[in-house]
Amino acid sequence: MTLTAIEAQEVWKQFKIPHERRSTILENIAGILSVFDDRRYSHEQFWALKDVSFRLEDGDSIGIVGPNGSGKSTLLKLIARTMKPDRGSIKYNGSVAPILELGIGFQGDITVKENALIYGIILGIPRTQLKKRLASILEFAGLTRFQDAKLKNLSTGMTVRLGFSIAIESNPDIFLVDEALAVGDMEFQQKCLDKFREFKKEGKSIVLVSHSMNLVNDFCEKTLYLSNGETRAFGPSIEVTQRYIADMQTPRPTYRNVNRQP
Amino acid sequence: MVILTLVFSILLRVNIPNYAAWVLLGLLVWRFFAIGTSQALGCILGNPSLVTKVYLPRYIIVLSSNIATLMGSALEFLILLPLLVILGVTLTPYAFLIAPILALEFLLIFALSLSLSSLNVKYRDFYQIWDITLQLGFWVSPIVYDPNIIPSRYQFLYYLNPLTRLIDSTRNIFLLNAAPSLFDIPVVIAGTGILLLIGFLIFRRLESRMAEEL
Questions:
Q1: Domain with B198 in it
Q2: Is residue B99, in this structure, part of any structural domain at all?
C-alpha cells in the first residue's frame, strides 16, 4: 500500500467581507452604541474554498491550476498551515517546507552570509547543519563572491536565488512552490528544475501552483483544477490541464456559479 | 534622568538617602518594562510576512522582541553598576539577586506582550491605549517618589502593581543590602503566572485568524 503524502478532506475556507470596517476598540464601542441606530455590524461571507478534497500519494506531485481568484493561493496557505481551514482537515505524512515566498526575514543591512543563517533558522534548519552547508548554499546561489556584501546591495534576482538555495536546503518531504520559478535567469531556472527532478527521484512531493501548463504536466502526476473555490477537476495532469485550457478558450465558462454553503 | 534627580532632590527636597541611585534603580526596572511591552506590542503587526508566509510558532516573534529588550536592559544595568559605585553604593553579594529579579520581570513582560501583540492585530488602536496606560503606570509605580506617601488605606491597592514590588526588591538588594521580602517575590510570581495563562489563552484564540487580519 502506498502512503499518503497529503490528504485534504472537505476543506472549506471562509473570508469575511465587512460592510463597515471596524478595527479599533473605539470603532467597536461606537458600533455597539449605534445598534439602535439601525447601522448594525454586518459582513458578507465569502467562501474562498468550497469542499475541496484531494489525496496525494507519497512521491507523487500535485499541480494546482485555475484562473485568478479561484483559491489556489488560499489552498497553498492552508497546506503551509499559515491559515486554518474553517471546516475539514488537511493531513500530512512528512515535513512541509514552511514557505510561500522566498526571502522572508531578509534584512538589507546585514551580510549575505548572516542572512543565510537567519533565514535557514526561520525555515527550521538546525544551526550546526546550516553552518556546515553554508558554503554549498552560497555556491548553488552563485553568491560565494558576495558572501560578505550587504544584502541590500544585491540585485533582486540574486536575493531570490539566495532564498531559493536556502529553502531547498531545508530538505522537506513536501515542497510548496508558488510561482517561485518565474524569477531568476534561465540558467538558475534550469538549476531549480534539475533540483526538483532530483527531489522527485528521492520520492519527495511537490505542490506546484502555476499558470504554466507545461511545467505542471512535466512535474506533476496529478492536477487539481479550481474555479471559484470549487474543485472542477482532479486527476491525471494531462487530462486536467487539457480541460482547463478548453475551459479558458470558451468565452463563457460552461459551469454555473452556485453559491454553495456547508 | 538628571532632570528628574534635580527636580526631585533639590526643588522638592525628597527625603530619601542617595536619591540619585534610588531613582536610577527604579528607572532601570521601569524602562525594561515600558520598552519591552511597547516594542512587543507592534511586533506582529510589524512583521506580517513572518505570519502569513512562513509557518512557525508565532509566540517566537513575541519572544524574540522581548529578548532584544532584555539585552538592551542588561547593557543598561552594566553601565549602571559603576555609576552606582560612584554614587556611593557598596555592592554586596546580594547584587547578584538582580538576575532572578530581571528574569521574573522578563516573564511578566512576556505574559503581557502575548496579550498585547495579538490584541493589537485585531484592535489597531491598542497602541495608543497602551501608550497612555504606560504614562499612567509611571506615576502609579514608586519610580521618582517614596511609596510611603501613599495613604495607608490605599497601600494594598498600590502594591497590586507587580512593578512596585519589583522596584522595591531591586532597591532592597542594592541600597539596603537585604534580600527581597519573602512576601514580594511569591506575589509577583503568582501574578505573573496568572498573566502568562491569560496571555497564552488570548494569543491562542487570536492566533488562528491572525493571517487573515494582517
A1: 18-213
A2: yes
pLDDT digits (tens, 9 = 90+) for A129-158: 888 888 888 888 888 888 888 888 888 778
Does B76 map to a domain?
A: yes
Question: Residue A104 and residue B49: Cβ atoms within 8 Å?
Answer: yes
Task: Inspect the interface and report whether the beta carbons of A84 and B49 lie closer than 8 Å.
Answer: no
Q: Helices (DSSP H) in chain A: which residue ranges?
A: 25-33, 72-79, 112-122, 127-141, 156-169, 186-201, 213-219, 237-249
Summarize pLDDT for A203-243 with one digit per residue, the tens. Answer: 888 888 888 888 888 888 888 888 888 888 888 888 888 88
Provide, as residue numbers in chain A, all residues whose Cβ is less than 8 Å from the Cβ of B120.
Answer: none
Decide if B140 is inside a domain.
yes
Q: Which of A24, A82, A98 faces B124 most closely, judged by CB atoms?
A: A24
C-alpha grid cell for residue A175? 515542497
Q: What span, in angstroms and rounded, lies between the C-alpha atoms of B116 and B54?
A: 22
Total structural domains in chain B?
A: 1
**Would you give the end-to-end CA distance of chain B in angstroms?**
38
Task: Look at residue B117 and tell me whether its pLDDT is greater than 70.
Answer: yes
Type of residue found at A147? Q
Collect all residues of chain A within an 8 Å Cβ-Cβ radius of residue B53. 82, 99-101, 104
Mean per-residue pLDDT for B56-62?
A: 88
Per residue in A102-121, pLDDT (tens digit) is: 767 777 788 888 888 888 88
Q: What pTM value is reported for the model?
A: 0.81
Residue B13 placed within a domain: no
For residue A63, the SS3 value is: strand
Give residues 86 to 145 of A whose Cβ lies within 8 Å of B: 96, 98-101, 104-105, 122-124
